[in-house]
Amino acid sequence: MLSDLLPAEVSFVSADQSQGGCGDNFQTVTCNLGNVDGLQTATVIIAVTVDVGAPSGQITNTAHVTGDQSDPAPANANDTVVTTVAGAPPVPGLTPVGLAAMAGLAALMLLALQRRNKSRPAVQATRR
Predict the structure, then answer these.
(1) 79 contacts 46 by C-beta, under 8 angstroms
(2) Distance between CA atoms of residues 84 and 76, nearest Å
(3) Which stretches of the chain are DSSP H helices?
(4) Which of 27, 54, 91, 102 has its CA 20 to 30 A from that of 63?
(5) The pTM of the whole model exceeds 0.70
(6) Euclidean distance between CA atoms 1 and 68, whole angstroms
């Protein structure tokens, strides 16, 4: 049995396992891997997304494996992954500078349209 309490800064997306089945319940991923005998291995890949607003820095995640049999090497029953999270890129917003730039662009577009319309006669006469 694999158990992984996910860090608070992430949300579970999926789990892909080489055998058995996995599910998540309130930030805890559990996988029933069935029998893993002798030199056999079982692989679990847990995909998560970092939550919006998570601070920059390192996120540490540790998964634990337990079984019904005695474990001759209990030190390898845990796997820890440390991931560095960079700050989210700035979201384009309506800052005062952005608003001023948008207003200036809108004024230029309006002025160009007014000049274009003034240079054309309202009614065009054609000769036959």
Answers:
(1) no
(2) 23
(3) 96-118
(4) 54
(5) no
(6) 9
